[in-house]
Design a protein that fits this description.
Layout (H helix, E strand, L loop, with lengths): L4 E4 L5 H16 L5 H13 L5 E7 L2 E13 L4 E11 L8 H15 L3 E6 L6 H9 L18
Parallel strand pairs: 4-5
Antiparallel strand pairs: 1-2, 2-3, 3-4
């Protein structure tokens, strides 16, 4: 099998990234996201690096995965946590090292940036497969629960 290459997403990726967001939301949470909203939200990240960055995984020139990295300042650590979000691996490419390649790329970049104090992600409490994947990458459950008021999706 061909190796996975990782690159920074660009404006030409917006439609595909947004489509994958919608597919992931439907598959993992049963939520149907508005196409125009996801396109605008994805484009906003591409156009404003302060919001984060997308990484795209490709195999033989075909996009097989993606993720978003966003930022959270930690006053306790005087550093930035990178949050892995919007993870998607194409169905036919799952269990073939795509997420590992994305994850390793993020950790490699984060570890060389002196301003980054750690990497976090959140995962649905019922998504045991994803939890096992993240644990296999050396991540562990934090002692925090996430609380929210969602003004858009409820």
């Amino acid at each position: 099998m061909e190796p996975v290459s990782i690159r920074l997403a660009h404006a030409g990726d917006v439609e595909a990234l947004a489509q994958n967001h919608r597919a992931m939301a439907l598959e993992t949470e049963g939520k149907t996201l508005d196409p125009e909203t996801t396109i605008r939200g994805t484009r906003a990240v591409i156009e404003d690096a302060a919001k984060g960055f997308y990484l795209v995984a490709e195999r033989e020139g075909v996009t097989v995965g993606q993720l978003l990295v966003t930022f959270e300042w930690s006053d306790w650590r005087d550093g930035m946590f990178w949050w892995i979000q919007s993870v998607y691996v194409a169905e036919g490419a799952r269990r073939t090292g795509v997420y590992r390649a994305l994850h390793d790329h993020v950790l490699g970049k984060a570890r060389t940036d002196k301003g980054v104090c750690g990497v976090r992600l959140y995962v649905d409490k019922e998504n045991h497969h994803a939890q096992a994947t993240y644990a296999a990458m050396g991540m562990h459950a934090a002692h925090y629960d996430v609380f929210e008021i969602d003004f858009v999706l409820g």
